[in-house]
TrEMBL record:
PANTHER family recorded: GAMMA-SECRETASE SUBUNIT APH-1
Highest taxon of the lineage: Eukaryota
Biological processes per GO annotation: Notch signaling pathway; protein processing
Subunit record text: Component of the gamma-secretase complex.
Record-stated family: Belongs to the APH-1 family.
Locations listed in the record: Membrane
Topology class, membrane: Multi-pass membrane protein
Name used for this protein in its record: Gamma-secretase subunit APH-1
């Protein structure tokens, strides 16, 4: 009985993931590789944006004449450039 419960729980837990693997990745693995490689630029842009936020705060604290709107727009444009490369 323990073995039956083990296999039953295993199939319930991993069945949907295994089905998705069979119907998508196993049929066309190159498409999945290209899809994941395409997301690298998006993740890079998110990391750069998250690293720039503390820098923007430090610049604003040290230089009161800096316009926050121009810094935000510059950061946004830089992220869009990274994503569209």
């Amino acid at each position: 009985m323990t073995l039956a419960v083990f296999f039953g729980c295993t199939f319930i837990a991993f069945g949907p993931a295994f089905g998705l693997f069979i119907f998508t990745i196993a049929r066309d693995p190159l498409r999945i590789i290209i899809l994941i490689a395409g997301h690298i630029s998006t993740r890079t842009s998110a990391v750069v944006g998250s690293l720039e936020s503390p820098v923007l705060v430090l610049v604003l604290l040290n230089d009161r004449s800096t316009n926050i709107v121009s810094l935000t727009v510059t950061t946004h444009h830089r992220q869009e450039l990274i994503q569209n490369q």
